[in-house]
Design a protein that fits this description.
The chain is mainly α. The protein contains 4 helices and no strands. The relative contact order is 0.12. It holds the Pfam family dUTPase_2. InterPro entries: dUTPase/dCTP_pyrophosphatase.
Length: 127
């Protein structure tokens, strides 16, 4: 990592290299291949979420369960791998993701501050 490189940019760079190692190159994919990989990544995200749930004692009535916080952290990192890969398939850079995140964050704050009484289909069109 260079002294001026931001951490999110580095994550995107590392993920691109990892994906290239397994033959996933969004820059050379046709639309059909991208859609298949988006589905693959979405399924992987779903599985990683299930694994994260398994790390947390979700049965509040079961006293025998113990949290596995170390593995929960690993599952969060696995989720990040697949989320970054998904962003890259959608032609998003680290800067694009950051910009979209900050815009969506403002929408979420506005919703919370306003009580979020109804869904506005247009409040995310600018993202």
């Amino acid at each position: 990592m260079t002294p001026t490189q931001d951490k999110l940019e580095r994550i995107f760079e590392l993920q691109e290299k990892l994906n290239l190692k397994i033959g996933v190159d969004p820059k050379s994919m046709d639309q059909e291949s991208k859609m298949q990989w988006l589905l693959n990544y979405t399924r992987a995200i779903s599985q990683e979420l299930a694994e994260l749930v398994d790390c947390i004692p979700w049965k509040w009535w079961a006293k025998y369960q113990k949290p596995d916080l170390q593995n929960a952290r690993v599952e969060v990192v696995d989720l990040l791998h697949f989320l970054v890969s998904t962003a890259q398939l959608l032609d998003m850079s680290a800067d694009d993701l950051f910009e979209a995140y900050t815009k969506k964050h403002l929408v979420n704050v506005k919703r919370i501050d306003g009580g979020y009484h109804s869904k506005d289909e247009n409040d995310c069109k600018h993202i």
